[in-house]
Design a protein that fits this description.
binds 2-acetamido-2-deoxy-beta-D-glucopyranose, 5 strands, 31% helix, Flavocytochrome B2, Chain A, domain 1, binds protoporphyrin IX containing FE, 167 residues, 5 helices
């Protein structure tokens, strides 16, 4: 049996990476407090993530099956790269350096990997559409990703055969 002290330590050990990942991926510095001119060298900490876009096209509602979505995984250079989150399909082609074959987040290309996004996991077995097992905290992370993508990528359609348990 674990001592209560060990549980606290384990709790922190698990919480620190989770907080760190959320911080690195979603922290956006505030521009509300301008720096005094006497300190010109102090630059605000910048987000590691790409900025939102102003030039997004109106969202499309084209239907795709999970099977059809697979061909948009970046392996066919004549096709765009798609990532689906909670059934919404985003065109991530302009970030092929991240989602292309062999790149850091290729695991999410050509599919709906909602569960893995919610869990902050890159494991293949987690990159599935059925996020019904996620707790409230992970669902919030997943919703943050959905809104992150909505501000940066064009919506090209929706997945028409999502797993029934995630509806
Ligand atoms: C210590 C671990 C990690 C570090 C240092 C890290 C760092 C980064 C960096 C630097 C980017 C920006 C890439 C770019 O725009 O070119 C990024 C994007 C991203 N990260 Fe992580 N990451 C980590 C772990 C994870 C994990 C575990 C996930 C799982 C959900 C994840 C999901 C993503 C996604 C989906 C993007 C792409 C966002 C976009 O489309 O612009 N990251 N990460
Ligand atoms: C992408 O999908 C094609 C079939 O649609 C498959 O042959 C290929 O192995 C997949 N590539 C990756 C990197 O998953």
């Amino acid at each position: 049996m674990l001592e209560p002290e060990s549980l606290v330590i384990y709790g922190f050990a698990l919480a620190i990476p989770a907080v760190y990942l959320t911080y690195r991926h979603f922290y956006v510095p505030s521009r509300a407090t301008p720096q005094p001119a006497s300190e010109p060298t102090r630059k605000p900490l910048k987000s590691i993530m790409q900025a939102p876009r102003e030039d997004l096209a109106p969202p499309k509602d084209d239907p795709y099956t999970t099977e059809e979505l697979k061909q948009y995984n970046g392996s066919n250079r004549n096709l765009p790269i798609y990532v689906a989150i909670k059934g919404t399909i985003f065109d991530v082609s302009h970030k092929s350096d991240v989602y292309g074959p062999g790149r850091s987040y290729s695991i999410f290309a050509g599919k709906d990997g909602s569960k893995g996004l919610g869990m902050s996991s890159l494991k293949p077995e987690h990159a599935i559409a059925d996020y019904s097992g996620l707790d409230e905290k992970d669902r919030k992370v997943l919703d943050d990703w959905h809104s992150f993508f909505s501000k940066r990528y064009n919506i090209v359609g929706k997945v028409v055969d999502p797993p029934t348990s995630s509806l």
